[in-house]
Batch of 2 targets.
Target 1
Amino acid sequence: MSPSPRLPGIRPALVALALTVALTGCSASSDDAEGSQPIAEACAGVSTRVDAAMTAFADVDAADPAAAADALAAVVDGLGDASRSIDNAELEKTVTKLHDGFATLSDAVDAAASGDITGVAGLATATEDIRAAGAEFARLCSD
């Protein structure tokens, strides 16, 4: 499938998001947050799933909206699984926000892949939500 000239906002948004999420890591902080699971343990347990979701997202071909929609659906599923595995309220809330941002982005890209470009307007909001949640994830899970 060739790039669609009707989707000019998707490619830059996907590239920006890929760079943002690629820079967020989880190496486990020594501070505990709310919940029965210490934050370091929660981060260690979820980082593999979050990393797998981010890798899938980084591999998105922004020139192919249908493939991007499929990849984003996999990211959303992976982040949903990750958020359900956390027993730390603060980290669970952050990963859920990351999931929700990607779900919004996925919906917009899926609609665009079907020819409905009205969802493109939501890309800026989704991008900001993902950036904010990614920064919070990195803050919670880094030394």
Note: The chain has one domain: 38-141.
Target 2
Amino acid sequence: MSRLPGRPGRLAVREAIDLLAEHAEDLNAAVRRVARLAYAILDGTLIPIDRVADQKPYYSGKHKRHGVNVQIIADCKGRLVWASPALPGAVHDLTAARTHGLIDALASANVMTFADKAYQGAGGGIRTPFKHRRYRPGLSRRQKTVNRHHAKIRAVGERAVATLKGWKILAKLRCCPRRATKIVQAILVLHRPDQPKPTMKRTRFTGNPVNVSGHSTSTPAGDVDLG
């Protein structure tokens, strides 16, 4: 990305991310699109971060590292449809999905959704694999067969996770974890082929980036921290 005149490069990137994020779909709009599909795939992923002062909420016992939890909806071809705002990494996937209203939104739209064992007990239209219970008989042949087919469907959803985490900026966030949501939303907009992208133009005198509506997107000169 070329540096905008009169603006530090890091601040220009921040402004571009914020501008893109403003055009991201909310959950209701995404669910309306998903409702037209045969089914959807729900999955959670951890985006690694640097350690922060208050690190305990961001430590994921499952992944054994610090990060933020992002919930992802994919279509039956593995394309990224929607990603949630980021929550601290210690939050369980099912808790995160409920916090964002994902379970209720998908159920109200009558969307059949496939998810892994982390979402067991979600209810609604969330389909999870059979889970072997301790001190109980093993899974039957039929249950194992269902789980294999279930896993094949969910595997397609990993493409959406790879699409999101394929961006180098998400390999490990070096900024404040609170910026993760804006970054994820900006990536969502860039991956929506049917959504018009906001544009920025250069002003002749001030050098401040201005969006197509003519409103300045400048921020105070001293605020150059992506965090």
Note: The mean pLDDT is 82.
